[in-house]
Amino acid sequence: MQYLTDRKRAVGAGAAHSGTAHHWFMTVSSVVLAVMLPVWLYLFGAAIGGTRDQVVAAFANPFTAILTALVLVVSMRHFAKGSAVMVEDYAHGTARKAGLIFVSSLAAVIATTGLYALIRIAL
Question: Phi first, then psi: what are they for 13, rounded to 5°?
Answer without folding.
Answer: -70, 145
